[in-house]
Amino acid sequence: MENEEEAFRLDIKTNSRVVERQALWAGIKPGMHVADLCCGAGKVTSILHKLVQPGGVAIGLDGSEKRIEYAKEHYNDNGIKFEHRDIRNLLDDVVVFDFVWMRFLLEYYLSSSFDIVKNVTKIVKPGGILCLVDLDYNCLSHFGMSPKLERTIFAVMKYLEKNADFDPYAGRKLYSFLYDLGYQDINIDVTAHHLIFGELTDIDAFNWMKKFEVISKKVNFNYEEYEGGYEEFLEEFNRFFVNPRRFTYTPVICCRGRKPAT
């Protein structure tokens, strides 16, 4: 998804009320020290920071220098810290936290998602909470599109699984990750992250069309069912998506667990 507008896309699509609900459900409380891993544009970090006041601390870590620059420019106030850090590598020099949050990351690391969570466990203090949030059936649940468009979208996703390490089914794996790592008091929440019907909002239009535009253009995929290739495919998807008859939804799965105290 890397492009010049990615930080902006991440920023405007983030619903503050949804993030607050998820974090409160997971057990965030005032006074906690919180890490927001792969913090993106920094908006979520700022929300978590508010939820741990008074007395709490929030830090956002992200592997993209552009994201960190954006976060510092837009959300670097009230003591929030942002650091450029690749969480796939060792985190031995990072302090431990009461609450560690990882949202919409593992979908990009199909082959190494469990290893990433195992590595992240190092910075969860004994008795602390790790919350994983990711989508299931990512970009795949639509009704009202032509069979050709539906087949092509599924084929593109299969291509991304094989060639770009993308996982459209990351959400369903989160429980097993925490279970296998020995976490306790594991709980699950499943809701609709995308629920789109009727007239399209400006935010949903920008978010979805930008996703399909960027991903479809970058992958070396042969749009064999479309004589006009990528451009014709994108045109049909955009026509489908602006139609108020269209129905689109994506489940989001939140999984939280407590690291054993001993």
TrEMBL record:
Domain Methyltransferase: 28-136
SUPFAM superfamilies, A to Z: S-adenosyl-L-methionine-dependent methyltransferases
Pfam families assigned to the protein according to its UniProt record, in alphabetical order: Methyltransf_31
Coiled-coil regions listed: none
Superkingdom, taxonomy of origin: Archaea
InterPro entries the UniProt entry points to: Methyltranfer_dom (IPR025714), SAM-dependent_MTases_sf (IPR029063)
Protein name as it appears in the record: Methyltransferase domain-containing protein
